[in-house]
Amino acid sequence: MKIFISADIEGVSGVVHGEHTSRDGREHDYARRLMTEEVNACIQGALEAGAEKIVVNDSHGTMRNLYHEQLQTKAELILGSPKKLAMMEGIDADFDAVLFVGYHTKMGDNGILNHTFNGRVVRSIKINGVELGEFGLNALVAGHFGVPVIFVSGCNLLAVEAAKCVPNIHQAVVKQTISRTTALNVHPAEARALIKEGTKKALQNYEAIQPFTMAPPYAVQVTFLHTGLADAVEILPIVTRVDPLTISFTTDNVLASYQLIRSAIMMAASIS
Ligand SMILES: [Zn+2]
User: Fold this and answer.
1) What is the pLDDT of residue 262?
2) Are residues 147 and 222 in the same domain?
């Protein structure tokens, strides 16, 4: 059994603020330790369920967050950026299942530290009229390769968002959102136990969960937080300006759509 883990930080128990999540945050190194141990719990659960190969993709910010030396020795780690598939770099059709650790809700919804890829750039992303967050967009990439996302950890509201895409997904709810920067957290040790047990349970019956897919063509709309961001992205020849804040494009390939979304955000971020 081959397992792919995409690890973010905002959904980790105890992480509630930019001081935890941003590179220069005073509590960032502490949050990185919490993140590393939640990923370790997922790896341990996967090993106990019979996983033979485990690839972890560090998926937050710089994508250099996990403490490699502290990581469970049986997993391989993708560190760094840029990478063509960003939060899903490393996934291919050889994997049997995907697990998301430390995920969060999309921009504009309630949920601790909600945002979609870049909180200073993106207001919303829609594919074929359906608004998706990082969970849904990354699950579509896995779905392109025929691989199901079978487990996610994060806050109680992310659990609702994830189940809209993958109704029978296994979950570890490690905190309850109170506000965008406040949560009721379970103890880190309890979070790790929930993640380990949830991973084991998910892998015992992973074939029951279908890959998340949408039918082509993929009509993508990205709405930005101000018009200057859309101005920058409108330079791409494939892009049409729909309204002052929104660009759109259409592809027949979900990977191309994902890569164009990521490229558009990088362009916009360069002037934000
Ligand atoms: Zn993140």
Assistant:
1) 98
2) no
Identity of the amino acid at 12: V
Written as one string, the DSSP assignment of 151-196 is: EEEEEHHHHHHHHHHSTT-EEEEEEEEEETTEEEEPPHHHHHHHHH
208 CA from centroid of ligand 1 (Å): 28
- Among 208, 228, 256, residue at a domain's last position: 208
- Let me know if 187 is a catalytic residue: no
In a domain, 188, yes or no: yes
Distance between CA atoms of residues 20 and 9, nearest Å = 9
* Dist. CA 8 → ligand 1 center (Å): 5
CATH at residue 253 = 3.30.1360.130
Cα 255 from Cα 8, distance rounded (Å) = 20
pLDDT at 272: 74
For residue 85, what is the domain's CATH number? 3.40.50.10780
SS3 of residue 7 by DSSP: strand
Residue 87 Cα, ligand 1 centroid: separation in angstroms? Answer: 9
pLDDT tens digit sequence for 124-166: 999 999 999 999 999 999 999 999 999 999 999 999 999 999 9
Q: Which domain holds residue 254?
A: 218-269
Last residue of a domain, one of 208, 228, 252: 208
Say whether 138 sits in a helix, a strand or coil. helix
Q: Is residue 127 part of a domain?
A: no
Residue 162 tokens, joined? 């994830």
Residues of the chain with pLDDT under 50: none
